[in-house]
Amino acid sequence: MSSDPRFSAFLKERIGLDVASVGEAIIERAVRQRCQSSQAQSAEAYWQHLQNSHDEQQALIEAVIVPETWFFRYPESFATLARLAQVRLAEIKQMRALRILSLPCSTGEEPYSIAMALLDAGLAPHQFKVQGMDVSPLSVERARRGVYGKNSFRGADLEFRDRHFTEEAGGYRIADRVREQVRLQVGNLLDPALLANEPTYDFVFCRNLLIYFDQPTQKQVFDVLKELTHVDGVLFIGPAEGSLLGRHGMRSIGVPQSFAFSRHVEQAPPVPVFVPMPAPTPQRSAAPIPLKPRPFSKPCPPVPPAKVAPADAGELLSQIATLANEGKSAEARAACERYLSSHPPAAQVFYWLGLLSDVAGSALEAQGYYRKALYLEPQHPQALMHLAALLESQGDSAGARRLQARAARSERAESESKR
User: Where is the region Disordered (predicted)?
Assistant: First the structure.
């Protein structure tokens, strides 16, 4: 039932979802769940129900979309925004409030992080407004509630929670002074009339969305994003999407790990390039921005047999993930090297090295590490998807599709094993 291609085509038409990017198993599981919930007795019966019910259409979309977000994800993006906001206010002589857009805004962590970052940077409430938008009414409603559980707070630095939240029985409620800076609404980025009558935005956040689209849909979305972004504005994207923007007239502003892009202007770049500062790496679900490929810095040292108890290996793997997720690039790389010096090779370690190399702009080195991860674990899902993104950015669409297909088959096999 759930393998019926009509459902994939429906999701492609409605939200631009490329089945290869998420795997058929995800769509199959969502259709199966909705079929059971609606008590449809066959694929045809559910298809007819889907065609005749707007609520069911939205329910299927909700079943496929699984929000994965937290406050201050990619911290350097928000630090960069705070600096650029001061510059932009001076450019417009503070004659109006800054306009900032977050889409998809999911359950609100990103737009509220934007507001908190700017308030903490000293901007007054009248100097900026944030608009959050998402295709999911359920996500928007959760964002409007403004109550978050522990999963929305990750990393070691949680001082912002003490400043901007109040603890209550159901979790942590965001302060009204932050909520008042954010307007939330339901909207589809593929809608040609999206925000058609709105002025352009000084800053647009659209992260970890483009990687789920095929190339024609990516082009369509890029055109919309460029229309929404002021000619002197900045677009913040996901780490895996930087190489895609270069083909559409955008350039990095030069701040490491900010994943910030402006329009490409040869003689007069609109946004000043800041001196690179030590900055956090992206979280584990992100793929980095490949810059100009550089040769391997050095080959990995030979790995001696393990002499440490397995528990210590697991602890070190956890430490690597924590350091990388907290943005401590040098420390995370050093932890990877410590692991390889005393333990057998592990696919997850090579994956982290690939991610760290990719963020540093060493695309060729990153590609080598991802391939090492796949040599040890051929169906490693993150390595497959990140290597696919690298190949796509280098023009190898066929190679990227093969890797995406492998990831989809792996996901399907895992899903079937859990039945």
Answer: 400-419
Phi-psi region of 83 (alpha: psi -120 to 50; beta: other; left: phi over 0): alpha
Cα separation, 132 vs 99, whole angstroms: 11
DSSP states along 157-192:
--HHHHHHEEEETTEEEEPHHHHTTEEEEE--TT-T
Strand stretches in 37-186, DSSP E: 98-102, 128-134, 147-148, 165-168, 171-174, 182-186
Grouping H, G, I as helix, E, B as strand and the rest as coil, residue 147 is strand
Q: Which is it for the CA torsion 73, 74, 78, 81, positive or negative?
A: negative
DSSP 292: S
Strand partners, 165: 174
Instruction: Return the closest-CA partner of residue 130 out of 182, 78, 208.
Output: 182
Q: What structural domains does the chain harbor?
A: 5-64 (no CATH), 75-263 (3.40.50.150), 310-417 (1.25.40.10)
Q: What is the pLDDT along the chain (419 residues), one digit of tens a residue?
A: 446 788 888 888 887 777 766 667 778 888 888 888 888 888 888 889 889 888 888 888 878 876 678 999 889 999 999 999 999 999 999 999 999 999 999 999 999 999 999 999 999 999 999 999 998 888 999 999 999 999 999 888 899 999 999 999 889 999 999 999 999 999 888 887 888 788 999 999 998 787 777 778 888 888 888 889 999 999 998 876 766 676 667 788 888 778 888 875 544 444 444 434 444 444 444 444 444 443 333 444 444 444 444 448 888 888 888 887 767 888 889 999 888 888 888 889 998 898 888 777 777 888 888 888 887 888 888 888 888 877 776 677 777 777 777 766 665 555 555 55
- Of the candidates 34, 23, 65, 61, which has an alpha carbon nearest to the alpha carbon of residue 412? 23
